[in-house]
Write a structure and sequence with these properties.
- The chain folds into two domains: 166 residues, VC0802-like (2-Layer Sandwich); 211 residues, Rossmann fold, CATH 3.40.50.
- It contains 14 helices and 15 strands.
- The longest helix has 19 residues.
- Bound molecules: adenosine-5'-triphosphate and magnesium ion.
- The site of magnesium ion has 4 residues, from loops.
């Protein structure tokens, strides 16, 4: 089947008045962005509280749908066949041909629903629905009408052309990115943080990211893995500015000066501080991590409190109540899982203690950090100064 247009449906809850325009305009921008890399010419526009994508000439249908499925804010994607307006007899034939091609097995119930925005059309919408329904029934003996719960709802819209569609491909839901500011994701090469970024972006929040590595203890491949993950997340969130921070000297210094069972917590506190530094520089409104209560020693309630202690921006932890398997399920669905499980070392795993504290006291941790006072400010400044910025498209 050759589809000429996509009709895009979006949820309307909570988007009244002026916000509605912002919402729609952001959605149009995100649809354009999503299709930028797809072969073909697309014209994206809004009309009568709907968004349309007209596809001019040849285009890759599968790829187009795949990209549209990643646009937050869309709840349904309807591929539309556009027919030239050549009189009703011709329309009947074409709609029957549409049904024939769309549905190999004709054993289902249906209903025709029509709208007529071209008021000069010789039939009203009731008559259009009724007469097209009749033509479909005549053509396919096994098909039945069900006006209340049809398996297939055949939509007809008469304008200068006639639009026919009956398929609704589920969209990603959520809110269009760009309608809710920006946040800084602490992105590691693990399974959790890409999912956390995806979930916050789903609510309309643009992303930046910070990744900490520890060369030469961590490899170039470990960094590439994070870049690859950022690219996967960016398919949903749009471009991500990724800050890559060399964390080696800070980690070695902590290792040198602080009790080893507190290493992970102190290191995590410095990660938060540095990420927050970049966040504030770029007007991000919060931090995002992939933490989940109790998953590891650094994610007990006490550890989370100790990590939180150094942040002034809100820290969003969208996976806080998720079990690992639930996180894995989302990771598989958004296609980050396979990349996440590639076995490359993370900076956190290199300097870990055998028995990390699981119930750190904030007071004790603060006191331990005082041992860093001699050099930590200059190391911090150096880490920030030498951070590499990678623009992920
Ligand atoms: P993930 O699967 O996201 O790596 P994790 O289960 O391995 O999470 P931790 O290593 O304790 O958990 O990290 C908790 C959170 O801290 C991560 O979800 C991520 O947001 C952040 N984080 C951890 N390591 C790094 C890193 N090297 N660079 C940036 N952020 C990191
Ligand atoms: Mg990790």
């Amino acid at each position: 089947m050759r589809f000429h247009t996509f009709l895009l449906k979006y949820g309307e809850i909570g988007i009244k008045g002026k916000n509605r325009y912002l919402f729609e305009d952001a959605l149009v921008r995100q649809v354009r962005r999503a299709l930028r890399e797809v072969e073909g010419e697309f014209c994206v526009y809004k009309k009568q509280a709907r968004i349309y994508v007209d596809c001019e000439g040849e285009y890759d249908y599968e790829e187009t749908v795949d990209k549209l499925k990643k646009v937050f804010g869309l709840v349904g994607i309807c591929p539309v066949v556009r027919l030239a307006e050549n009189g009703f007899e011709e329309l009947k034939k074409e709609v029957v041909a549409y049904m024939d091609e769309m549905y190999a097995d004709k054993n289902f119930t249906f209903k025709v629903e029509s709208r007529r925005s071209k008021k000069t059309y010789p039939k009203n919408s009731m008559e259009i629905s009724r007469d097209l329904g009749e033509a479909i029934l005549e053509a396919f003996p096994k098909i039945r009408v069900d006006v209340h719960h049809p398996d297939v709802l055949v939509n007809i819209e008469v304008r200068d052309e006639v639009y026919v569609y009956s398929q609704i491909i589920p969209g990603a839901g959520g809110m269009p990115v760009g309608t809710n500011g920006k946040a800084m994701l602490l992105l590691s090469g693990g399974i959790d943080s890409p999912v956390a970024g995806y979930m916050v972006a789903k609510r309309g929040v643009g992303l930046e990211a910070t990744y900490f590595h520890a060369p030469p203890y961590t490899s170039e491949r470990a960094k590439q893995k994070v870049v690859d993950l950022a690219k996967k997340v960016a398919q949903y969130s749009g471009p991500i500015k990724l800050h890559v921070v060399n964390f080696t000297d800070i980690q070695l210094y902590i290792y040198d000066r602080c009790p080893h069972d507190e290493l992970t917590i102190i290191m995590r506190r410095y990660m938060m501080r540095i990420a927050e530094h970049f966040a504030k520089e770029d007007a991000c409104l919060g931090l995002i991590t992939g933490e989940s209560i109790g998953q590891v020693a650094s994610q007990t309630m006490q550890s989370l409190a100790a990590t939180n202690d150094v942040c002034t921006l809100p820290v969003y932890r969208p996976l806080i109540g998720f079990d690992k398997q639930e996180i894995v399920d989302v990771a598989e669905r958004i296609d980050t899982y396979e990349t996440s499980i590639q076995p490359f070392e993370d900076c956190c795993t290199i300097f870990v203690a055998k028995h990390p504290v699981t119930k750190p006291s904030i007071e004790v941790i603060r006191r331990s950090e005082e041992r860093l006072s001699e050099k930590i400010d200059s190391l911090f400044a150096e880490a920030v100064r030498t951070a590499e910025v990678i623009e992920i498209k």
